[in-house]
Design goal:
alpha+beta; three-stranded antiparallel β-sheet
């Protein structure tokens, strides 16, 4: 098989549907025994964060790294699982285990903006979240 350049690979991926790409990633992970985790910065993409307390309180000072901890899934567990998958790029089983095992950290050492957005998204999905 001819070796493909990075640009050729990207062009091939552009033609795949999201489901096909997801299946490829799973097969890649299994074949090479790795995890393709998205950088935390990906969760920061989108609308600007609304202001608000980061949950650290005044004693936190200039804290620049936060852990987003899911305390409980609430009544809408499926929506919370979907949001956890979006924020972490976990597989369905891993995200379900995380949500069912709450309280558990969803993101660790995230910047303030990312942590606040993750908290807002998880709370909008019906979960109970704290920032540490």
């Amino acid at each position: 098989m001819a070796k493909l350049s990075t640009d050729e690979l990207l062009d091939a991926f552009k033609e795949l549907t999201l489901i096909e790409l997801s299946e490829f990633v799973k097969a890649f992970e299994e074949t090479f025994d790795v995890t393709a985790a998205a950088p935390v910065a990906v969760a920061a993409a989108g609308a600007p964060a609304a202001g608000g307390d980061a949950g650290g309180g005044d004693d936190a000072g200039e804290q620049d790294e936060f852990d987003v901890v899911l305390e409980s899934a609430g009544d809408k567990k499926i929506q919370v699982i979907k949001e956890v998958r979006t924020l972490t790029s976990l597989g369905l089983k891993e995200a379900k285990d995380l949500v069912e095992g709450a309280p558990k950290p969803v993101l660790e050492k995230a910047n303030k903006e990312t942590a606040e957005k993750a908290k807002e998204a998880l709370e909008a999905a019906g979960g109970s979240v704290t920032l540490k």
